Amino acid sequence: MAAPAQESPSVRISSSTGKWILLTTVLGSSMAMLDSTVVTVALPTIGRDLDADLAALQWTVNAYMLTLAGLILLGGALGDRFGRRKVFVVGVVWFAAASLLCGLAPSAGVLVAARALQGVGGALLTPGSLALIQASFHPDDRARAVGLWSGFGGVGAAIGPFLGGWLVDGPGWRWVFLLNVPLALLCAPIAMRHVPESKDDQVHGRGFDVLGAFLGALSLALVTYALIEAPVGSPVVVGVSAAAGVASGVAFVAVERRRADPMMPLGIFSSRQFSAVNAVTVCVYAAFGGFFFLCTLQLQVVAGYSALEAGVALLPTTVLMLFLSARSGELGQRIGPRIPLTVGPLLAAAGMLLMLRVGQGASYVSDVLPAVLVLGVGMVALVAPLTATVLASVDAGRAGLASGINNAAARAAGLVAVAALPLLVGMGEEAYRSADAFDQAFRRAMPLCAGILVVGAVIAFTTVRKPPPDCLRPECLTHGSVTAPPLEPNRARARLE
Q1: Where is the Major facilitator superfamily (MFS) profile domain (predicted)?
Q2: Do 298 and 441 belong together in one domain?
């Protein structure tokens, strides 16, 4: 029996309710976005203040990405079932409470645990921000609302590195996290008072794929632990962790194949285009994750930049994304995604190789800026077409699921890269305390990151094709952030027929 049709959303963007919805979703998503751009700037100072080794700094980044990547699809499903506004508000409050714990952390261990809790909050609020827009706005205003949300989010991403550097050099690194508390105190009451509730009546009666979410997160956690601890941990413990991580991954695939309503229906990968673009996503965001983790450390540890200078040094990439991504999306619509998804990674790879010029006493204008500009142009060329192609590679009813899977793939790729890259280049646990040792490891890492991007370009050139014109919807052209592609609403989680 067909499910009853749901009432079409009717909020107009010019109404007071529409403006409140936009403000709420921008505030909520900005909390997660700011954390993703400012924490890496603070890593050297955190390490010195808490007397943490490189592994602790890796976990400071990865603990957040681990729980976010592992639970983000489940977070979207919870919003569909219990109410998108309700779960969004819970996520905002949870994220703020975890941020407070991060800001008060007396040790690296407490900070890592709090970052993992932050990721849980992020998994609840991140899908909810765009889901609220999709569920609330009139169809005629939806694309414009998504564009405004993305534009304001781009501004937030642009000021993130500057703000993070200023906080680290000024009030201290703890304010990188404490800043989320007043944002949450503003966001949550506005959401409860002015944002209409919505849920998907079609999901009632279905069970949650809790086992799938647990196995996916467990696999990522064990593999990440093995990679980070390999240089200094017990070979037996590391080997057992790696084997258990692989076994958990195999079990995850088996569970998803057998469940009637899985978190990640494997049938969606029968689309060759979808599988290919996700492979490109893994390559691109693995390279970006490793690059941004190491680059801010290189600028501070080796080049002698302050936290503020290191944050501002990377600002051109975000500015280019902010002003040119929409045009890049339009270009991808006209010529197809194959060329942008081939040229973009190659340009980004060239930018990373240019970073090899950055050493002790590096000049920003002659050494850093050319690399950052080339990298930024590459990111502009690939991110919007990548997001659009993911959504266009499946039918409209699966767009939310497709984007959620792609977002999780991007975060997982960055997670593994941050864990594996120091191991692959022989970076010791105290390397970030020595300019010479870190510089040598950085010079081995950049060619690896560039090589991963070249692999992504080859995959794109050989497998990606232009989707049919009716798949190129306006909302597909909204640009993503530097960290990961934007999420479409998760309410389209209907089982693949």
Answers
A1: 21-468
A2: yes
Q: How far apart are the two ends of the chain, measured CA to CA in Å?
A: 14
User: Please, where are the H alpha helices in 259-354?
Assistant: 272-297, 307-313, 315-335, 338-354
**417 neighbors 287 (Cβ within 8 angstroms):** yes
Does the pLDDT value for residue 127 go beyond 90?
Answer: no
Cβ contact 120:32 at 8 Å: no
* Domain stop point among 198, 226, 250: 198
Can you tell me the distance from the alpha carbon of 23 to that of 194, in angstroms, rounded to the nearest whole number?
A: 10
Map residue 59 onto helix, strand or coil: helix
Nearest-angstrom CA–CA distance, 12 and 48: 50
- 134-146: per-residue pLDDT in tens? 778 887 777 677 7
Please report which residue ranges of 355-434 form alpha helices under DSSP H: 369-392, 399-424
Tens digits of residue pLDDT in 100-121: 999 999 999 999 999 999 999 9
Task: Report helix, strand or coil for 11.
Answer: strand
404 falls in which pLDDT band (50, 70, 90)?
confident
Please give the Cα distance from 403 to 287 (Å, whole number).
Answer: 20
Give the dihedral of Cα atoms 475, 478, 482, 485; nearest 10 deg: 10
Cα separation of 321 and 479, whole Å? Answer: 8
Whether 3 maps to a domain, the answer reads no
**Distance between CA atoms of residues 179 and 302, nearest Å:** 29
The region of weakest confidence among 30-39, 145-154, 386-395, 469-478 is 469-478
The C-alpha torsion from 366 through 371 and 374 to 379, rounded to 10°, is -150
Name every residue whose Cβ is closer than 8 Å to that of residue 371 and which is 6 or more positions away in sequence: 351, 352, 354, 355, 357, 358
Instruction: Report the C-alpha gap between 179 and 168 in whole angstroms.
Output: 12
| Euclidean distance between CA atoms 205 and 460, whole angstroms | 40
List, in sequence order, every residue forming a beta bridge with 70; answer none if it has no partner.
Answer: none
Task: Kindly state the average pLDDT of the residues 410-421.
Answer: 91
User: pTM for this one?
Assistant: 0.82
Q: Which two tokens stand for residue 447?
A: 């060619």
Of 161, 167, 157, 158, nearest in space to 46 by CA? 167
Of 270, 298, 252, 240, give the one whose Cα is nearest residue 441.
Answer: 298
Angle (CA) 264 79 38, round 5°: 85
Strand partners, 11: 137
Tokens of 485: 């592609």
Range of the domain at 21: 17-198
